[in-house]
Amino acid sequence: TPQMEEELSEECRELISSLPTEKGLVSGNLYQYEGFWHTSEILQKILPYQNQFEARDSDIYLVTLPKSGTTWLKAMVFALVNRTQYNPNSNQQHPLVSNNPHQLVPFLESEPISNGVDSCPTDPRLIATHLPLVFLPESVKQSGCKIVYLCRNPKDNFVSLWHFTNKLRTEEMGCISLEETFDKFCRGVELFGPFWDHVLGYWKESLEKPDKVLFLKYEEMKENPGNHLRKIAEFIGCPISMEEESFNLVNQILELCSFDHLSNLEVNRAGRLSSGHSKSAFFRRGEVGDWKNHLTPEMAQKVDEIIKQKLGASGLTF
Ligand code: A3P
Question: The Sulfotransferase domain covers which part of the protein (predicted)?
Fold first, then answer.
């Protein structure tokens, strides 16, 4: 909003005045910097991070584009990493029963820079971010930390984004049409977008550094969540043991973190996060293929063509 922009530093104001700009989906403007779209507030926050943020080798970063399963991934990895401290089977006492996943795993771009992510309640630190690879702090790229990247079919990602956007828009703003949102999406104009450049950055990094970046897809995780949980556990260095397999730990975590369980919890049905987002907005349907209920065949074809062209011979397909 204009009021927020007044609080920007001189430096940031100067920078954004030279950048291509477009109206965002909710309020305020987006600015295109080094190929990606940001709000001015996020730019102001993350630019100093590049050299000042101190990653630790033990850190685990959960990276997503908005609406590609962030909430689910946060819940699953939180439950995994803290399984000795919090028994996923004793639902009553589990932090995921009394907190929204976003309250347990902070976003890098919404925390103060001071000593890294101060409010991070876990050890190792579990930190989420929507930042494209090129905007990750240098120390995250250089340190021995792990990155779990989760993406989603672009058509479902878009439909989820459109619904979410309309939940965030106030009554005065009114709803934004599917067509207008679609036009922006196809031009790559969305916060942290373009979609294809975001996924490609992490896809290539995962091929070059498979020990550093684990690349996952929402659809595949829905199809076989157990194997994905095992894969994540191994990747972040806390594999599921034979003993844990014998008492079905994997299923316990999956049930604790399932869409049905989380979305029906009191704590996720009402109230807002400190960011102002309503907690229930993060749970809609949680299904694969909902785009079929919203996109015309022409729209679907258009996305497919763009994605095919942009992803080229990368080997990544949706
Ligand atoms: P839909 O809008 O298609 O239902 P994010 O967490 O990145 O904001 O993504 C939100 C999407 O993930 C929404 O998709 C939401 O319903 C879905 N989601 C939320 N919690 C989930 C869970 N526990 N399991 C599967 N999907 C979930």
Answer: 57-314
- How many Å lie between the centroid of ligand 1 and the Cα of residue 17? 35
Query: What beta strand segments (E) does the chain contain?
Result: 21-23, 29-33, 36-38, 60-64, 126-129, 146-151, 213-217
Q: Which residues are catalytic?
A: 130
- CA dist 70 and 64 (Å) reads 6
- What is the CA angle 27-12-9, rounded to 5? 95
What is the pLDDT, as a whole number, of residue 2?
46
pLDDT, one tens digit per residue, over 89-148 is: 976 789 999 999 999 998 999 865 555 555 666 779 999 999 999 999 999 999 999 999
What SS3 state is found at 217?
A: strand
What pLDDT is recorded for position 118? 59
Q: Could you tell me the two tokens for 290?
A: 């909902």
DSSP run (H or E) holding 58: none
Which residues in 56-82 are b (16+ Cβ under 10 Å) and which e? Answer: beebbbbbbbebbbbbbbbbbbbbbbb
Q: Whose CA is nearest to atom 14 of ligand 1?
A: 286
Atom nearest to 261 CA in ligand 1: 23
Report how far ligand 1's centroid is from the alpha carbon of 157 (Å): 10
Amino acid at 193: G
- Alpha carbons within 13 angstroms on the beta-carbon side of residue 197 total 21
β-sheet bridge partners, residue 128? 62, 107
Segments of the chain with pLDDT less than 70: 1-6, 91, 111-121
Q: Which residues sit opposite 216 in a β-bridge?
A: 150
Q: How many CB atoms lie within 10 A of CB 94?
A: 18
* Residue 155 and residue 291 in contact, taking contact as beta carbons nearer than 8 Å: yes
With a Cβ cut-off of 6 Å, ligand 1 is lined by 64, 66-72, 156, 160, 163, 257-259, 262, 282-286, 290
Note the pLDDT of residue 20. Answer: 97
